[in-house]
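Input record, target 12 of the design panel.
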């Protein structure tokens, strides 16, 4: 009765047999875009080849990867030659790649480069505009998915390294069409919580999964955020627009947590070093001041202070002697000057001096009168003036001129006829 039932392994093996013996599937030529690319340490390549509607898992063994002359990356368009087969462990069909050629760049990569160039030209990536991350934050915000490894790694790392920091989660979608707007909404919401640092990111994934962090609205929200932002998107090899615009880029969410807080032991060691240096500095300061104090105490002025008084007393005595000498000398000089004045001619015969001065005065008056024009007028002479100026020649007047004739006892005005 049960003979008609077969196992899953038997069915998978049968399908594999059919596909492996289909000549149309033994050599296929596919073109598409690389996604989820991983290079194994043994040299194998694992990735997904996709187009707008479908995708297929692909593997290229190390024996074939050595032949290609470029490094495959997510978003790269390629031309693939390979064989279709079934991987029995999971029953999935995949292509085993024999050869791979570049076929341009995927649409997402083009969009990434275009936005990167645009924002860079606007200065959103400038190093001089990036804010410093506080060394010892009091409160850290995290914009990421509320579940998953990213938030767990961030919280555990912060609590392990610096348990004094409070961590606030701002839950957000991190992939899908609505993720970018949700990330922006949570970044703006975080600014109401007085944060010292904000971590924005998620765990690893394909370029499609990480794409919300390549959206322009997310980039501008990070740039305009007043809180210093650390981006923590994907793995170390993943780069997004958010990484370029953030104040600091972390290779992973765990790395972001390590950059956001110090190591408790390191801080303790640093404080101990500061304590030692401070003690040494204080002791050196005390020793220097002690030496200065001893130097001052040993000065002769403090050991024999009477020296100050004795020196000043000598100077004082010298000043007194100079003052006495100057006083006597000044007195003698003034006394001689007084005696000279008392013996002068003017004190002995003052009236004779007055007579001499009076005679000299009369001589000067006589000379002045002799030169006075008034005396000339009294003798019958006149002074003729025209417009206030003295006329000395008939050539200076003409008919009808008005003249002033000054006599000894008055002025006569006349007109020339």
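The sequence produced for target 12 reads:
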């Amino acid at each position: 009765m049960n003979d008609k039932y077969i196992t899953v392994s038997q069915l998978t093996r049968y399908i594999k047999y059919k596909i492996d013996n289909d000549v149309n599937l033994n050599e296929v030529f596919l073109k598409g875009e690389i996604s989820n690319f991983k290079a194994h340490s043994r040299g194998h390549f694992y990735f997904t080849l996709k187009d707008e509607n479908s995708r297929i898992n692909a593997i290229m063994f190390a024996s074939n990867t050595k032949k290609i002359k470029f490094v495959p990356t997510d978003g790269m368009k390629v031309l693939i030659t390979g064989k279709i087969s079934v991987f029995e462990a999971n029953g999935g069909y995949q292509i085993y790649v024999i050869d791979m050629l570049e076929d341009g760049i995927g649409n997402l990569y083009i969009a990434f480069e275009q936005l990167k160039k645009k924002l860079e030209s606007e200065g959103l990536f400038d190093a001089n505009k990036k804010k410093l991350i506080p060394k010892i934050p009091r409160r850290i915000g995290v914009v990421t998915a509320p579940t998953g490894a990213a938030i767990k790694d961030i919280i555990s790392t912060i609590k392990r390294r610096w348990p004094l920091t409070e961590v606030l989660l701002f839950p957000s979608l991190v992939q899908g069409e609505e993720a970018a707007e949700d990330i922006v909404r949570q970044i703006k919401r975080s600014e109401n919580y007085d944060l010292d640092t904000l971590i924005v990111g998620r765990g690893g994934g394909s370029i499609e999964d990480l794409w919300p962090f390549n959206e322009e609205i997310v980039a501008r929200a990070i740039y305009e955020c007043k809180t210093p932002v650390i981006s923590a998107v994907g793995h170390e090899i993943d780069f997004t627009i958010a990484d370029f615009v953030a104040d600091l880029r972390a290779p992973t969410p765990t790395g972001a947590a390590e950059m956001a807080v110090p190591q408790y032991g390191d801080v303790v060691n640093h404080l101990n070093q500061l304590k030692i240096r401070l003690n040494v500095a204080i002791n050196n300061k005390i020793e220097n001041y002690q030496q200065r104090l001893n130097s001052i105490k040993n000065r002769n002025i403090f050991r024999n202070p009477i020296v100050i008084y004795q020196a000043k007393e000598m100077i004082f005595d010298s000043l007194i002697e100079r003052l006495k000498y100057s006083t006597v000398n000044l007195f003698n000089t003034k006394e001689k000057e007084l005696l000279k004045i008392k013996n002068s001619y003017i004190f002995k015969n003052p009236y004779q001096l007055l007579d001499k001065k009076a005679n000299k005065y009369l001589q000067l008056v006589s000379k002045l009168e002799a030169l006075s024009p008034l005396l000339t007028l009294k003798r019958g002479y006149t002074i003729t003036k025209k417009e206030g100026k003295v006329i000395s020649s008939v050539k200076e007047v003409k008919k009808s001129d008005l003249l002033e004739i000054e006599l000894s006892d008055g002025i006569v005005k006349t007109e020339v006829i």
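The first helix runs from residue 8 to 20.
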